[in-house]
Backbone:
């Protein structure tokens, strides 16, 4: 038996059997349902509303998760529900991963444009019976006169060479990448580069002119792997299930990069065939999934990367649709949980060259922190978890329209702002940080995080919760004691990471000249709130800067400059790495760090 | 409408429409019909006998070609005939390209085994939380201790690395190829190499142990492109028709190499995954078709190669099924019609190092000749045509069972021997050479090649012919005046090539210390006959040597030794090249060279 499953308001429909969960249907239709646990039934986030048709009986899991009111309105968990007839579903905004704020803007760092690849105009002499030189020798001899001595031509480029030479009347342009000719084209061809920061949640792509360094276009999009789990650990679990699963996760990234590059080229009015070099950064797991490397050993102590050095791979081998001879360059990783994106961030923030004492923090599902002090760099990785992306928070959601992103509570007066000014549907990371800081300031939360009796605190079963917004016919949006605990775990991990670095360097927080907060989430948080809850060190506000997508900037630098590429490898090699779990009395220290 | 077309005695059948020529049917069923012209209706060699069923009417071309007797027996040209009902066909042996003699034996040249790739046993230390080194760094550091400093690991090898390391308890073997790790395996893995000489007609493949240089297995097979034309020019024409046509010709070679390699591995009891390096030689057109390069410019003066330097390509990129990280190395070409197979032959015959004056000849559809004199090497390419493969000769065929290969005529007594002692079905190259030499010796042919009146010469229409063998109910096998002319053109081209080289060096033929005859055809010819008809210079017989497949030997040398690889490039660069068409008074000289 097969049934039509219709997702609204996105308007996607397809035919499925009674053996397909609604989550599986959504995946196959590219409806981006939130699925933090990867369909394991534990994250309770893939809620959909059945508007018409019959579905399977309420599962055991769902009886625990859904309120009577929700069940009455037809809400179900997509991962636990099967169609029994044609069905029509409503997907509430908070269950959709898109649209969302993405972050492509980052630091603007000046760099001397000195890319690994240069375009050289050459004028060839047609061969004769007396001098029947091959096309390659012909090209090499003219390039040598110009001071370029490549030793090979990519074999895919060789395929085009005779036609390009003859259709351009023996005047061509050659993209020379060190020892290799990687592209040929008409005289004066403008060779382009593509850089991308692939985050666990979001992808930022950039199209650049390799000769001038000009940014032609940039674009953010969701990481499509999201529908297979919101944190990298979920994806590692899926990738380890089978090779086809791992291949599918890889294919999603490749497809995302291809479509991003095509859209950027369209926007800039250029051809994808002009893109002859790419730089990709991501955390170590994303890096491995992108290349198609095994991630099994990344999921187990001691969290070993397969490869941590910078690597160059022909894009075509990965299925990337750039110019056929294009390489993709992956910046080095530092450790299993300190990846190339962290290296790129360190490159962009220039802290490797700083004589100051600087702390650089990239907050995310995994938070990487680096301290530079007296020329020495040390990094730490903290499993801060996806709470900032709204996961494990009852009404948490990612930074999509309708998410509460700003909260103030003064003298009992509550002020709430949502993204896009829409009616509230949930609360995103910066909002959660704000509300908890406000509750702490107003002594509604104790030092330990315990919620006290208060007129605006209500009891919901055994759990206290603070009501943020009432909704018509639906549960009000609240922050519960449990949510506070989740955030305490996240902020505690970051705080402990910072403490570990300061102690390792033997310095006090006051020695910090500068604290850099990078990454999309870091861009939108209120630093004061973060200080209030004890996530960031208490320092004058002017010492903090929020720099946006620094990893993307680092990728762009490595695209434009051989020196920057070399510097990235130097940073990866120089950067000392502390394993947080090895901090003495870790459990006690961590518990203390969760206090506010 | 569709019909069953049945080829006997091969016993292949399939369903086809009335729009498919019988040649097309044969191709699709992999029945290797001779097709010198590639189906253009001009070579008259794809004769088949219709045993049952209806076919299209006799075409205009066929009326010229087939005798009344043949037509009565149901003989047709497969390329001009279409099925009109289910049909059953008999394919006479002379119309089949297989089985045939192939030549894998060649010179045995001793060489110091020093391959580009070495296997290194390494013992790794498992990472810990204190020292969470990546698998690649782990490997590199141990290799460095052993004096190996690769800078990268093939990304396909990276995919296997974690599992290979862990399943072998941190003891593995690494195939290091200069800067790159191209394979990993269990400790003590025996890494193998594959060498092949891809001729226009035949392929010779060799499986070798890279550490010891031992030849594990060797095998000859037909070049499957044969069914798309017997000479390279026909294939260039087909490849130029469209990209899918060129791709199909490439795929045939790749498939042939893959199946040869698999069979060799099976014979040697090893796994194809142990094959980590390959060397391929072939003429320039075959080289280009193998790599997938355009051949359009090879077919037009000045016959320009796209690439003439040695190249390395990942085998997987071409669809080769060796170990995933294996490279295929292609030896350099010299010119559009002097290819890597000639370079390999020069390498194997050691004439580059000789202080003697030596002529080396590789006779084939295209004949390449090299003269070494006073340390200077010069080559020439002669379009000798496919006459030696039996093409354009009325009863010509390739060296298959039943082919007349030896002829003596003493005092009017004719002695004829066939391959395998089978009843005669045609005459192969060495037989043609023999019979023409015997006719010349017995003055049945004049100096000019004119056939005189003679009791054993009969008149067939306007053409004289010498009867070699009568056949029951079929046309007798003859050599006609026209066949003699064809052979004169072939031998004239070779003779003029030799003369041009001697003149270029300013020496007389008597100065030649040694004449080396390489290649499968050259192995089987009677040197005396070749001298008699003036193809080879008149010199004492002891100065000649027939060395078999020297190109295959050269490929094996390049597989086993980096020095030999470098020498091949040196030979290609050193070898002077004369364009035969540029010889002064070419037409007159060529006409003279055809005399006997």
Residues:
């Amino acid at each position: 038996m097969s049934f039509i499953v219709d997702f609204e308001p996105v308007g996607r429909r397809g035919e499925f059997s009674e053996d397909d969960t609604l989550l599986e249907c959504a995946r196959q239709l590219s409806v981006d349902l939130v699925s933090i646990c990867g369909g394991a039934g534990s994250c309770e986030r893939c809620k959909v509303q059945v508007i018409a048709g019959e579905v399977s009986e309420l599962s055991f899991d769902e009886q625990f998760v859904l309120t009577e009111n929700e069940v009455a309105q037809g809400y179900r968990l997509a991962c636990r529900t099967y169609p029994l007839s044609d069905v029509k579903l409503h997907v509430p905004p908070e269950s959709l991963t898109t649209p969302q704020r993405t972050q492509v803007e980052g630091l603007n760092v000046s760099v001397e444009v000195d890319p690994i690849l240069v375009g050289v105009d050459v004028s060839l002499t047609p061969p004769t019976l007396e001098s029947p030189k091959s096309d390659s020798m012909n090209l090499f001899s003219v390039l040598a006169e110009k001071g370029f001595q490549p030793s090979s031509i990519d074999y895919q480029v060789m395929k085009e060479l005779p036609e390009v030479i003859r259709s351009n009347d023996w005047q061509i342009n050659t993209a020379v990448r060190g020892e290799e000719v990687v592209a040929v084209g008409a005289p004066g061809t403008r060779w382009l580069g593509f850089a991308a920061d692939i985050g666990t949640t979001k992808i930022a792509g950039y199209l650049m002119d390799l000769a001038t360094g000009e940014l032609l276009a940039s674009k953010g999009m969701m990481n499509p792997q999201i529908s297979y789990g919101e944190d990298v650990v979920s994806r590692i679990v899926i990738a380890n299930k089978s090779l086809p699963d791992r291949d599918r996760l890889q294919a999603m990234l490749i497809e995302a990069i291809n479509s991003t590059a095509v859209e950027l080229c369209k926007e800039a009015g250029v051809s994808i065939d002009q893109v002859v070099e790419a730089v990709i950064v991501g955390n170590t797991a994303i890096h491995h999934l992108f290349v198609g490397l095994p991630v099994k050993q990344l999921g187990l102590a001691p969290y070993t990367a397969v490869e941590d050095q910078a690597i160059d791979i022909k894009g075509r081998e990965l299925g990337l649709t750039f110019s056929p001879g294009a390489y993709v360059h992956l910046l080095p990783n530092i450790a299993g949980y300190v990846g190339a994106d962290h290296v790129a961030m360190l490159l962009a923030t220039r802290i490797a060259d700083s004589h100051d004492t600087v702390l650089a923090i990239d907050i995310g599902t995994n938070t990487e922190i680096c301290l530079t002090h007296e020329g020495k760099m040390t990094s730490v990785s903290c499993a801060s978890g996806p709470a900032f992306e709204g996961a494990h928070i009852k009404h948490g959601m990612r930074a999509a329209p309708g998410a509460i992103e700003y909260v103030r509570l003064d003298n009992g007066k509550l002020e709430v702002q949502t993204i896009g000014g829409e009616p509230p549907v949930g609360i995103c990371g910066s909002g959660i940080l704000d509300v908890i800081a406000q509750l702490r300031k107003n002594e509604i939360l104790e030092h330990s995080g315990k919620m006290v009796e208060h007129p605006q605190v209500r009891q919901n079963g055994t759990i206290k919760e603070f009501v943020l917004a009432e909704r018509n016919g639906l549960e009000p949006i609240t922050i519960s004691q449990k949510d506070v605990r989740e955030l305490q775990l996240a902020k505690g991990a970051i705080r402990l990471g910072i403490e570990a670095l300061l102690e390792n360097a033997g310095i006090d927080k006051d020695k910090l000249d500068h604290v850099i907060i990078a990454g999309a989430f870091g861009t939108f948080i209120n630093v004061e709130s973060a200080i209030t809850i004890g996530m960031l060190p208490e320092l004058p506000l002017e010492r903090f800067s929020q720099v946006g997508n620094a990893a993307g900037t680092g990728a762009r630098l490595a695209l434009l400059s051989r020196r920057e590429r070399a510097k990235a490898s130097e940073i990866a090699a120089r950067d000392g790495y502390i394993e947080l779990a090895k901090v003495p009395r870790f459990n006690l220290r961590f518990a203390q760090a969760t206090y506010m």
In short: The first strand of chain A starts at residue 2 and ends at 8. Chain A has 16 helices and 27 strands. Chain A has four domains: 2-95, 117-185, 192-330, 349-596.
